[in-house]
Each structure stands twice: as structure tokens, then as C-alpha cells.
Amino acid sequence: MAQPKSRPKEAADATPNGSKKKGGSDKIKDEKGRYKPGVHVWCLYAGDKSYRDCEIIEVNTLKSGEIRYYLHWVEFNRRMDTWVKADQVFEMNPDDPEAKLS
Q1: Does the structure show a pLDDT above 70 at 37?
Q2: Is 45:57 a contact under the CB 8 Å cutoff?
Q3: Which residues are CB-contacts of 95 (< 8 A; sequence separation ≥ 6)?
Q4: Which residue has the higher pLDDT, 24 or 71?
Q5: Dist CA 9 CA 23 (whole Å)
Q6: pLDDT digits over 59-85, tens only?
Q7: DSSP string, 18-87
Q8: Which residues of 40-60 are buried (b: 16+ CB within 10 A; e: fewer)?
């Protein structure tokens, strides 16, 4: 009987939607250094002042050069999705660097 092939590391690191998981991969950012849509990041949630898991839905660069991300807060209703500035998005949770993203 043939042995099952192991998944390549790239496939093992992918999320269900095919994007790369957080954690040091160059595949989470584009050539301009912006996070790609589908990537999970941390962002400060104003409701309870905690860092939450978010998925980037859209990336927009304003005429001024400022980068904005449209985020979906994981485990929240889509009506809570919001635009945030690039300096509000983090690869690691600033309060708990060991915390994992979904």
C-alpha cells in the first residue's frame, strides 16, 4: 500500500481560505509591505480595550499615502467591520506575544 504524501510546509501553514497564517511568513505582505487581504492580524478593539483577532478584508492607500485596512473582527457580526489605520494593526498581540491567531 502506498504511503500518503505529507503536505508541503506551505500548505500546512495555510488557513482554510488559503492565506498564510501569522508568524513570520513573507507571504502575508505584498511587495509594498502592506498586509494582504485574508491575513489574520491583531487590532485593538475599542469596546473593551483588548487586542482581538481580525481578518483583513480590504487594503486602501489614501492620496496622502496613508494605508488603511478594512477589518472583520473574528467572532463578531459583520456589522462591526471597520476601517483602521496601519499603525493599529499588529502581527503579534502587544499584550500577550504568545497568543495565537485563529
Answers
A1: yes
A2: no
A3: 50, 51
A4: 71
A5: 13
A6: 999 999 999 999 999 999 999 999 999
A7: SPBPSSS-GGGB-TTSPBPTT-EEEEEETTTTEEEEEEEEEEEE-TTS-EEEEEEETTS-GGG-EEEEGG
A8: bbbbbbeeeeebbbbbbeebe
Cross-strand partners of 72: 55
Torsion (CA) 91, 16, 52, 71 in degrees, nearest 10: 80
Residue type, 26: D
Mean pLDDT of the chain: 81
Reading the block at residue 8, the C-alpha cell is 508541503
| d(C-alpha 55, C-alpha 82), whole Å | 11
pLDDT tens across 87-98, in order? 999 998 888 888
